[in-house]
Every structure is written in structure tokens, then in C-alpha cells.
Amino acid sequence: MNGNSAPGPLDRQPTASRPGVSGWPAVAYETLDWQPSLATGRLAELVAGSYAAAVPPMIATVTPQLASDIVELSRKASFEIARFDSELGAEIGPFASILLRSESASSSQIEHLTASAKNVLMAEAGDVSRRNATEIASNTAAMNAAVSMATDITDATILAMHHALLHHQHPEWAGRWRDQPVWIGGRATSPHGASFVPPEHSRVPALISDLTTFARRTDIDPLVKALLAHAQFETIHPFPDGNGRTGRALIHSMLRHDNLTRSVTVPVSAGLLSETDRYFQSLTDYREGDPSSIVELGAYATLRAVTNGRQLAQEMNAARTDWATRLQGVRRDATAWRLLDTLIEHPVTDANTIAEHLGISTVAARTAIAQLVDLGIMRQANAGLRFRKWIATDVADALDRFAERAGRRSSTRP
After folding, report:
1. Domain 68-312 belongs in CATH node 1.10.3290.10
2. DSSP-derived 3-state class of residue 50
3. What does pTM read for this prediction?
4. pLDDT of residue 10
5. What is the domain partition of the chain in residue ranges?
6. Is 324-400 a CATH 2.60.40.1500 domain?
């Protein structure tokens, strides 16, 4: 939530940051003054006054000391990430885009942004008529940016991820550190009663610089480091909006930076979806000096995500095999076969896009689409005769099933 005016300092000396469990420092707090500029009369009396804002510790040189069972769990999860990446990277190239979409949708769902796979795919293809779908498609762009810029984790790359996420919805905020207070929970008019108030905005640049220094360390297990960096990022809350989605994109940027993944995006957010209450509690635990909760939950979420991702991969391979079987009566040099090879990566398309992508005429593209429609592989995705889009329904259906499995609460852990 955003305030209406800047806070003024009352006591800029933060309370002492005490060491938490595992040798990790807890968040300290400072007292700030809140003077709302838009509230008048009795409302001003209700919401004016001091409040406590977080002062997160600097973590660039801090090393967590986790219990042996959590260390072993994170190593198991890291091994599964690497194996999953190796399996799918060698098996099917376009599958990387499917997993990235799945992670984007799951991360958005944690923020209560939901849409069908068809609507999200339509938004990626240029249909901006559905707000949630458009925002999820923007999150896919942010994930893409996170992975593509993983060669170096810097303040600038985080700003670029955020710009990719929000430049359509909020260009005034996209790719800029916040210059105003934010808070979580409570009322919209003031930080009083909030469950957590992130640091005063002037502290953000230094905290982010410290965070990216931590992210580039090589002496901490990559998955542990990524999860702790994520928790620190959410504590800093450097933007007016989009912090959760950008912070989860940061996880993937770091995993790619440390070569734990090379080909695909492991849908960690999909593993968190079934336990969102525990996820938010683990962030609270982190702020109190206990990093073990976010590491433990993140490792379990990774194992769930890998299981779900493998099932999605199997469904995609089965669909691809079925498509090839249906197309057996068509000449092997026909454009329909070339189009078939693009559908997993680009399940919603149109004749002009296909023509440009395959280097063919639009007439040949329409002929190939018609063949796949006749065989039940594609169908028209929107109404009307102009600007027609076509969708590979098997891909959209598999993505919806993936999302349903991700959101299903399980009583047992993997």
C-alpha cells in the first residue's frame, strides 16, 4: 500500500538489530512520523502520528548457519533442480518457454492474479482486453528478463526486471525505486495497524546494493542463497508494486547465474502455491532472524515443482506424439509439419506471425493452419474474421492442469 505523504523522522536511531537463530540478524525498527497530506478533520486525527518502520540488516558478509537436516534438504532440492534442467534441456528445446509461463502464472497467483492459460496466451499474442491475463503475460516478460540478464546480478538488472513487469500497467513506477512509504496489511490511509512496514525509501538503494553483493557470493549453496536473497528483497520492498513477482523472478536469475539451471525455469512458485500462508509466515520468521523457515519451505516447494513440471513435460511430449500421428497423412515437406514444431513454444498464433517466423507466404501459413484445424490440433481462439488467432488447445489445457495441481493443498510433503 502507498501513503499520501513522506514520513518525517522522530528517532532515526534504529533499535539494535539482535542476532537471530542460525546467526542471522533480525530486522531492527525506527520510529517515523506520519503526517498525511490528504486527510483532514477527524480522519487526520485518526491516522497521524508515529509508526515503526523496518531497518533491515546488511547481509553482504553474513553467512547462515543452518541445521544439518535443512542443509541436506536444500542439497537434495538443488540436485533435483539440476537433474530436471538436464533432462528437459536435452529433451525438448521449446519446453523452456512452457515452464517459464507456468512459473509466471504461479507467481502471479500468489498475488491473487489468476487467468486461464488461454487468456494469458492470448495476452502474450497481443490481446490486452483482460487485465489479469495481461499482467500475468507481463510477469512472463519479467521472468524472461531475469533469466536473460543472469550473467550479472546488479541493481540495474533488478530495475530492468521490474520495468519488464510493470511498464504497461504502471509506467510511472516501472524500473524505479520507490520514493514513498509502503506497508503490508492494515488500512489504505496510513501505516498504522500494518502487519509490516518496509524501510523508509531513502534506505532502499544502499540495501539493494548490499543485497546484490550478497547475491554474487560463491561460498553459499546457490538455492539457499537465492531463497535468502528473495526474503531480504521482500523485506526491503523496493517498489510501490510488483515486489513479490520481481522478488520471485530474482530467484531464477540467481539460479541461472550460479549455473544451477542452464536451460529451463524450475517453477518454484508453483511449489509455493499450495502453502501460501506458510510462505508469508516464513518471510516473517526471516525478519525475526530465523532464515531456516524460508530455506526449508523453498526446498520443499522446489521438490513439488519438479514433480509437477515433470508431469507437464510428459503431457507435452504425449501431445507432440499425438500431433505427429494425426499428421501422418500429410507430406513430410508440408508447412504443417514445420508449424507443428513451433506450437509448444508459441501455442497462440496467427497467419502473419507464422509467415514471418517460418519465412513463408501468408497463403501457405493459412493452408497449414487449416490442415491442423481439420486434424483437431488447433482451433480458432477468438471470434470474428479479422485479426484471427489460433490456439493449440492441448498446450492450454496442460497449462491449466499444471496450475490446478500447483494450487492443490497437500497433507504430505515430497
Report:
1. yes
2. strand
3. 0.85
4. 40
5. 68-312, 324-400
6. no
